[in-house]
Amino acid sequence: MSLNISEENLSTYDNTNKKTEEIVVRQYDEEKDKLAVEELEGQCDFGQRGQPSLFTDLMGDPISRIRNLPLHVMLVAEYGNDGDIVGVIRGCIKTVTRGNNGSTPCPVYVKIAYVLGLRVSSHHRRLGIGTKLVENLEEWSKINGAKYAYMATDSSNEASIKLFISKCNYAKFRTPFVLVQPVHAHYKPVASDIAIVRVSPQLSESFYRRIFANSEFFPKDIDHILDNKLNFGTFMAVPKKTLLNWDPKSGSFPTTFAILSVWNTKEVYKLQVRGVSSLKYACCLGTRVLDSWMPWLRVPSIPNIFKMFGFYLLYGIHMEGKDGPRLMKSLYAFAHNMGRNDKECRLLVSEVGFDDPIKEAIPRWNKFSWGDLWCMKKLDVNELSKDDNWMESQVSNSSSVIFVDPRDF
């Protein structure tokens, strides 16, 4: 549940700036603000002018993207005498690993805020509204014990990068990749010598806490994620011959394996690609028709992403042993077939660190994939800590592995 915050904690303004005086930032009130926020969100597509854009439908729940985190808040910005809602921002706080070089057997945790869902009306740009929303969210984060704040954006989103880096003093921190694979009409076979094993939430938690102890952004409350109704399960791929000598209930790892979990984002929000030419639309439709009529050809069809659709996020991705890459590809084929049987799932999405070697084993379409940018800020620069500043740590001392929390997507 979200915490209540007073208007005194939310509003600190520069009275010398007339434009700033007209901005009032307060906590979202569902009964009062829901319709206005939905209207504002409906005006905001992602994409460059003149190019196809991506529209997000929150399905009548403006806090759907943060609802699954225990500590979260949504702020709205009112402007002018009429108090029109012209901006929104969301944020949540969690405890995650900050990475280490493996010199200590225990993970190093830190409390961090995640900033997401910043929207400003196109008719009220250049008034400092976005900056004020970020500043007030940072204040809420500090009050609730967060030491750092971070945000993620498409590396080509110049407006967002300029706001956070130039005006809000964030720094570029990590550059992961978002890898996207379409879900086709045809079935993807899994090799006959590979077994796909479903792993219980309890055993998954044990595995993940060991696998990602030295990674960055691994959430301390991983058990809540694995038990969430949006989690479709954790699956492990192993050679069938391994099953003769390996008991999953023992808690030990097989000699070679691949593992991942599947998160159902389509119950949180849906997406739609807009602004595609009639010719491209017809070409995409043609690939789907051919794939549906003759699935044995395994045509690499483009799913219908021009109507509202959902996707599965694959996370907790890890492999070990000589057969790891092959096992991982089989796991993705298994996940693809799960999506194929779900009429609303169009894509499989994963996000991995820039230098994570597992990136090469993940199937994707490069045209659908993109580079992400994570920016970070230390919220209290005057606070002294016995630990090194995470942002100033040497890259060589940090894990190449970033754990992507599915609740952040």
TrEMBL record:
InterPro entries: Acyl_CoA_acyltransferase, GNAT_dom, Plant_NAT. One of its GO terms (molecular function) is acyltransferase activity, transferring groups other than amino-acyl groups. GO terms for biological process: auxin-activated signaling pathway. Gene3D superfamilies: 3.40.630.30. Residues 23-191 form the N-acetyltransferase domain. This is N-acetyltransferase. The lineage of its organism: Eukaryota, Viridiplantae, Streptophyta, Embryophyta, Tracheophyta.
